[in-house]
């Protein structure tokens, strides 16, 4: 069972809202966040390959297609198409922020158990990059005046000593963690694409509007 | 007294004739349909006739040689496709039709080839299939789509009979899709399945309307424009990036340019005066694979119109030209050449 003590993440110092006068708006930081998701996705590909090989078969087989059991606390990227399209900016950003906060926490747990030094190094490097992504998303939210999500009392992930976890089930949890992480990074690229388009300067926004009609 | 007897006689004769006629020409029961494997041997009995009954066999109306017979049964060795047809056996003397067999020679199906692709992401994907070798007889296909434990509907394509379409209900799923197909015909059965993630099958259609135009007064430029494929439903939220390749017809080596947005590009290193062939491909910015290459566009960069060489006769009394005409043309030619060398 995936559980995590992550109080440290939820108490990031509040990022002060950027001085709006004369600043280029959230556009550049949205672009930066988008670029970070691409960078992380690329990094994850080699990390996941190495880690799945470490887990061994069947986890590293390309056709491995297990049912999704357990790992219920993992934040799921999957969403109904129409719901995803109609997400408002605040919700879109919040969902991304919350997802990566949880995923980072679980990844750190993975790092603690990893057997080889090389794996621990790769995981640590990835965790740092993921922390950077979180900071970037927080920056965008602050620039747009949205509050960072605070954990509700009782929903904060805390360590819960679950039932004795078999080695195989633990590996399954690891498998789903990496899968979900990869899918979230693909989703975030699309999320930030959408945000980028909405934040275009007014002239371009009008052009887009007209194009949409003609489309 | 004699009149009733001839009448009765006529009636009986007429009835007998009618029965014989009916037997000869009435619609027989439909021919028995039979499927046999290519290369095999088959023995066709003449319906319920005894083995030693005297019969003649015909195929598609043509008599068959009696040496193919084993008693009243027709024996065919090493079936070929040409053996397919309507076989009929007749009572030798009365030409009464005893039995008909519609024989189809074919093969059981080999493992079908199945592939799926999403050219309309995020709307959905389609799967298409075919048999690697023909069976020569009718086949039925059955496709099932599973997403985890959930069965999804694959709607038949209205135009193509080996294609069906699935609509995405959810995006960004970590659960793989499994598409299975089974094929069967009268001689056998086969099946296959493929499993894939949502992202791996994304492959847009090629860009449309690729047009290349020369740029006036620029002998080394070509302006290329194209459109996103009309099947891609949402280029705003799911933008495409493009790959352009071009070469002069006379060379084999392509030049490549990758473009992250926009649907125009100006080639600036074209060889002057050479006809170019240009193609564009598209890909979702983050996921999936490149489309096939678009239909090729052809264009030749702008060239200056050649001036006509004329010798102008000098009329008496006219002022001489500042420069002899031939020399002035030659000088212009040299200037143009030196310009061309500077550009290269």
TrEMBL record, chain A:
<dbReference type="Pfam" id="PF06875">
    <property type="entry name" value="PRF"/>
</dbReference>
<keyword id="KW-0964">Secreted</keyword>
<dbReference type="GO" id="GO:0005127">
    <property type="term" value="F:ciliary neurotrophic factor receptor binding"/>
</dbReference>
<dbReference type="GO" id="GO:0097059">
    <property type="term" value="C:CNTFR-CLCF1 complex"/>
</dbReference>
<dbReference type="GO" id="GO:0005615">
    <property type="term" value="C:extracellular space"/>
</dbReference>
<dbReference type="GO" id="GO:0048295">
    <property type="term" value="P:positive regulation of isotype switching to IgE isotypes"/>
</dbReference>
<dbReference type="InterPro" id="IPR010681">
    <property type="entry name" value="PRF/CT"/>
</dbReference>
<dbReference type="GO" id="GO:0097058">
    <property type="term" value="C:CRLF-CLCF1 complex"/>
</dbReference>
<dbReference type="GO" id="GO:0043524">
    <property type="term" value="P:negative regulation of neuron apoptotic process"/>
</dbReference>
<dbReference type="GO" id="GO:0007259">
    <property type="term" value="P:cell surface receptor signaling pathway via JAK-STAT"/>
</dbReference>
<dbReference type="InterPro" id="IPR009079">
    <property type="entry name" value="4_helix_cytokine-like_core"/>
</dbReference>
<dbReference type="GO" id="GO:0048711">
    <property type="term" value="P:positive regulation of astrocyte differentiation"/>
</dbReference>
<dbReference type="GO" id="GO:0030890">
    <property type="term" value="P:positive regulation of B cell proliferation"/>
</dbReference>
<feature type="signal peptide">
    <location>
        <begin position="1"/>
        <end position="17"/>
    </location>
</feature>
<comment type="similarity">
    <text>Belongs to the IL-6 superfamily.</text>
</comment>
<comment type="function">
    <text>In complex with CRLF1, forms a heterodimeric neurotropic cytokine that plays a crucial role during neuronal development. Also stimulates B-cells. Binds to and activates the ILST/gp130 receptor.</text>
</comment>
<comment type="subunit">
    <text>Forms a heteromeric complex with cardiotrophin-like cytokine CRLF1/CLF-1; the CRLF1-CLCF1 complex is a ligand for the ciliary neurotrophic factor receptor/CNTFR. The CRLF1-CLCF1 heterodimer binds SORL1 (via N-terminal ectodomain); within this complex, the interaction is mediated predominantly by the CRLF1 moiety. The tripartite signaling complex formed by CRLF1, CLCF1 and CNTFR also binds SORL1.</text>
</comment>
<keyword id="KW-0325">Glycoprotein</keyword>
<keyword id="KW-0202">Cytokine</keyword>
<keyword id="KW-0732">Signal</keyword>
<dbReference type="GO" id="GO:0030183">
    <property type="term" value="P:B cell differentiation"/>
</dbReference>
<protein>
    <recommendedName>
        <fullName>Cardiotrophin-like cytokine factor 1</fullName>
    </recommendedName>
</protein>
Automatic annotation (TrEMBL), chain B:
<dbReference type="GO" id="GO:2000672">
    <property type="term" value="P:negative regulation of motor neuron apoptotic process"/>
</dbReference>
<keyword id="KW-0472">Membrane</keyword>
<keyword id="KW-0675">Receptor</keyword>
<dbReference type="InterPro" id="IPR003598">
    <property type="entry name" value="Ig_sub2"/>
</dbReference>
<keyword id="KW-0449">Lipoprotein</keyword>
<dbReference type="GO" id="GO:0004921">
    <property type="term" value="F:interleukin-11 receptor activity"/>
</dbReference>
<dbReference type="InterPro" id="IPR007110">
    <property type="entry name" value="Ig-like_dom"/>
</dbReference>
<keyword id="KW-0325">Glycoprotein</keyword>
<dbReference type="InterPro" id="IPR003961">
    <property type="entry name" value="FN3_dom"/>
</dbReference>
<dbReference type="GO" id="GO:0004897">
    <property type="term" value="F:ciliary neurotrophic factor receptor activity"/>
</dbReference>
<keyword id="KW-1003">Cell membrane</keyword>
<feature type="domain" description="Fibronectin type-III">
    <location>
        <begin position="206"/>
        <end position="306"/>
    </location>
</feature>
<dbReference type="InterPro" id="IPR003530">
    <property type="entry name" value="Hematopoietin_rcpt_L_F3_CS"/>
</dbReference>
<dbReference type="InterPro" id="IPR003599">
    <property type="entry name" value="Ig_sub"/>
</dbReference>
<dbReference type="GO" id="GO:0007548">
    <property type="term" value="P:sex differentiation"/>
</dbReference>
<dbReference type="GO" id="GO:0097049">
    <property type="term" value="P:motor neuron apoptotic process"/>
</dbReference>
<keyword id="KW-0677">Repeat</keyword>
<dbReference type="InterPro" id="IPR036116">
    <property type="entry name" value="FN3_sf"/>
</dbReference>
<dbReference type="GO" id="GO:0003360">
    <property type="term" value="P:brainstem development"/>
</dbReference>
<dbReference type="GO" id="GO:0097059">
    <property type="term" value="C:CNTFR-CLCF1 complex"/>
</dbReference>
<dbReference type="GO" id="GO:0070110">
    <property type="term" value="C:ciliary neurotrophic factor receptor complex"/>
</dbReference>
<dbReference type="Pfam" id="PF00041">
    <property type="entry name" value="fn3"/>
</dbReference>
């Amino acid at each position: 069972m995936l559980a995590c003590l992550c109080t440290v993440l939820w108490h990031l110092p509040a990022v002060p809202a950027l001085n709006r006068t004369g600043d280029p708006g959230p556009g550049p930081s949205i672009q930066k966040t988008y670029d970070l998701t691409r960078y992380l996705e690329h990094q994850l590909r080699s990390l996941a390959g190495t880690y799945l090989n470490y887990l061994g078969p069947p986890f590293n087989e390309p056709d491995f297609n297990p049912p999704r059991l357990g790992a219920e606390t993992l934040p799921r990227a999957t969403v109904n198409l129409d719901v995803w399209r109609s997400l408002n900016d605040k919700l879109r950003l919040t969902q991304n922020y919350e997802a990566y906060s949880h995923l980072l926490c679980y990844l750190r747990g993975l790092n603690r158990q990893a057997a080889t030094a090389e794996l621990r190094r790769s995981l640590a490097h990835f965790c740092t990059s993921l922390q950077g992504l979180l900071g970037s998303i927080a920056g965008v939210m602050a620039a747009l005046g949205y509050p960072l999500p605070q954990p509700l009392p009782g929903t904060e992930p805390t360590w819960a000593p679950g039932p004795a976890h078999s080695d195989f089930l633990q590996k399954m949890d690891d498998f789903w963690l990496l899968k979900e992480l990869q899918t979230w990074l693909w989703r975030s690229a699309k999320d930030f694409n959408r945000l980028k388009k909405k934040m275009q300067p007014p002239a371009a926004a009008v052009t887009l509007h007209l194009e949409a009609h003609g489309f | 007294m004699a009149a009733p007897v001839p009448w009765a006689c006529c009636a009986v004769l007429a009835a007998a004739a009618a029965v014989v006629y009916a037997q000869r020409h009435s619609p027989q029961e439909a021919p028995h349909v039979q499927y046999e494997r290519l290369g095999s041997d088959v023995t066709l009995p003449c319906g319920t006739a005894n083995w030693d009954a005297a019969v003649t066999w015909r195929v598609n109306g043509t008599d068959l040689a009696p040496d193919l017979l084993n008693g009243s049964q027709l024996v065919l060795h090493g079936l070929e496709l040409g053996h397919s047809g309507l076989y009929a056996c007749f009572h030798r003397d009365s030409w009464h039709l005893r039995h008909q067999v519609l024989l189809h020679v074919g093969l059981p199906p080999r493992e079908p080839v199945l592939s799926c692709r999403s050219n309309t992401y995020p709307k959905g994907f389609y799967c298409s299939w075919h048999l690697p070798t023909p069976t020569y007889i009718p086949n039925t296909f059955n496709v099932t789509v599973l997403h985890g434990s959930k069965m999804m509907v694959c709607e038949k394509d209205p135009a193509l009979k080996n294609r069906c379409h699935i609509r995405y209900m959810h995006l960004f799923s970590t659960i793989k899709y499994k598409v299975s197909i089974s094929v069967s015909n009268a001689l056998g059965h086969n099946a296959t399945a493929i499993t894939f993630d949502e992202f791996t099958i994304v492959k847009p259609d090629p860009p449309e309307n690729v047009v290349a135009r020369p740029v006036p007064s620029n002998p080394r430029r070509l302006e290329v424009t194209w459109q996103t494929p009309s099947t891609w439903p949402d280029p705003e939220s799911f933008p495409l990036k493009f790959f352009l390749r071009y070469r002069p017809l006379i060379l084999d080596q392509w030049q490549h340019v990758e473009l992250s947005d926009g649907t125009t590009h100006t080639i600036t290193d074209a060889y002057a005066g050479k006809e170019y062939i240009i193609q564009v491909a598209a890909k979702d910015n983050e996921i999936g694979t490149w489309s096939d290459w678009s239909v090729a566009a052809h264009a030749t960069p702008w060239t200056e119109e050649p001036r006509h060489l004329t010798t102008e006769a000098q009329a008496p009394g006219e002022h001489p030209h500042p420069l002899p005409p031939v020399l002035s043309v030659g000088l212009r030619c040299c200037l143009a050449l030196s310009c061309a060398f500077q550009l290269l």
